[in-house]
């Protein structure tokens, strides 16, 4: 296996790897049909094995404090995507990608990584194993169909909300417990 910079010709493999990896998480419906591009510089690496993309990491980094990351001192990098193809999990690929991205980040005077994830315990434990610390959280709340009634409404005439994805930063999450989907979104940070 080699870890190398992402190339435009990797896009299909990148999308497949990310989609299959995310299907096993609380982000199962966050499907992309093309690779994201960033406003700021980014470290974009892939792990390749026998011509197949089996892992990826994308870290958008700051040239000016707090333009990408939500917290911290100095210049940081936001891990937007880190994924390992499920057929190749538990082989240390995610860890190798993280360390390779960190090496590049240090050369660019980046002093930390920030990553937001949902309430998948196995994902959170991986971040903790990689020496990230949980530093913040809020909630992702989805409303569908009858859940919308009386809770979410539009002020636009003749516009009817059917599905809504929201961020809730308050303290009374119990009011939404009857919803089918409520996820705690957690920020992890690793300084180096």
Automatic annotation (TrEMBL):
SUPFAM superfamilies: Acyl-CoA N-acyltransferases (Nat) (SSF55729). It holds the Pfam family Acetyltransf_1. It comes from the Bacteria. GO terms for molecular function: acyltransferase activity, transferring groups other than amino-acyl groups. Residues 1-153 form the N-acetyltransferase domain. Keywords: Acyltransferase, Transferase. This is N-acetylglutamate synthase. It comes from Solibacillus silvestris (strain StLB046) (Bacillus silvestris).
């Amino acid at each position: 296996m080699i870890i190398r910079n992402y190339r435009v010709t990797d896009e299909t493999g990148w999308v497949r790897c990310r989609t299959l990896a995310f299907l096993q998480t609380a982000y199962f419906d966050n499907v992309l049909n093309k690779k994201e591009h960033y406003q700021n510089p980014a470290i974009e690496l892939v792990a390749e094995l026998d011509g197949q993309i089996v892992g990826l990491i994308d870290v958008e980094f700051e040239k000016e404090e707090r333009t990408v990351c939500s917290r911290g001192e100095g210049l940081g990098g936001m891990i937007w995507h880190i994924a390992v193809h499920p057929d190749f999990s538990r082989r240390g690929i995610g860890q190798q990608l993280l360390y390779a991205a960190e090496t590049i980040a240090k050369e660019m005077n980046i002093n930390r990584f920030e990553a937001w994830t949902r309430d998948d315990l196995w994902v959170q434990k991986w971040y903790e194993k990689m020496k990230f610390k949980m530093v913040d959280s809020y909630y992702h709340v989805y409303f569908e169909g009858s859940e919308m009634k009386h809770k979410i409404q539009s002020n636009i005439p003749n516009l009817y909300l059917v599905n809504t994805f929201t961020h809730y930063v308050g303290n009374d999450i119990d009011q939404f417990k009857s919803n089918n989907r409520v996820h705690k979104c957690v920020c992890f940070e690793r300084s180096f």
